[in-house]
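Tutorial, part two.
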Amino acid sequence: MLNVGVFGVGHLGKFHLNNWLEIEGVKVVGFFDPNNEVAKEVTEKYNLKRFLDEEKLMDASDIVDVVVPTDKHFDLCMNALRKGKHVFVEKPLANTIQEAKDLVNMAREANVKVQVGHVERFNPAFLALKDVNVKPMFIEIHRLAQFNPRGTEVSVILDLMIHDIDIVLSLVKSGVKNIHANGVAVMTDTPDIANVRIEFNNGCVANLTSSRISLKKMRKMRLFQKDAYIAVDFLDKKTEIIKLKEAKDTEAFFFNLETPTGSKTIAVSNPKIPAEANAIKMELESFVSSIRNNSTPIVSEIDGLLAMEVAHQIIDKINNTNRIAK
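Running the prediction step on this input gives:
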């Protein structure tokens, strides 16, 4: 039995609690949250012990689940790692690059598992690509959200776009050659809308747009590669693959297309995606599995650091662009 202590039981923390309570072989020993009103609600609803001392909750836990504002990540994670605890921490890994690097080094020294909550890696629409040979040369992603004061302690880059940065890095697997970025602060003191072009050493180009002041929600990705066009809708959980027909294609819709080099048979397929899939539960279960099997978490602390490094390069580009514009 693995004991779990949850730090932060606000909006997202409650989702974590709900899912931890459904995972076999795991026991939630309690939670820590300085907000008395929230703590009272959680205690009554879940019949869980509220710890008033962070140290005591960590000492009682095998897994420390960090679901607090980004600027609080470092201290909690560092303390947990010093105690030899496994750590699940919501994205982004830390508030600064130096903090993230320190956590990576500490995790290595402590020889424990750390997973970062880039939950879109577990979105069933994205998982539908696990058996597809994905080698994109151009990626287009739009992530639009309605304004919510929660999470605005950081820019839209670290709030929303970092999901897509992590997804892109997991697909491209190449070093970043160049970044072009623009961002505008509308409702907060940091960019609320941003557009970024990332050029990779292997020739791939990714165009990312994120906004947290949109009138509608959108989380879509399109991949273009030599043999296929792939569309992923993270919000509606739909995936479409369009490519030249192969012998193994049996459940696709086919049509013929006349090209300058002759007639081509095109296959259009929509991988089956379970409607009841729970991405948060899957990422937590995956983390537990990595602990029991002594395997690398699907989104390790190193993945979290890499995403942060690109995110902060983007932030620097935007700041320089805006400084010049003034």
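The two ends are 58 Å apart (CA to CA). In part three we will examine how such features are distributed along the chain.
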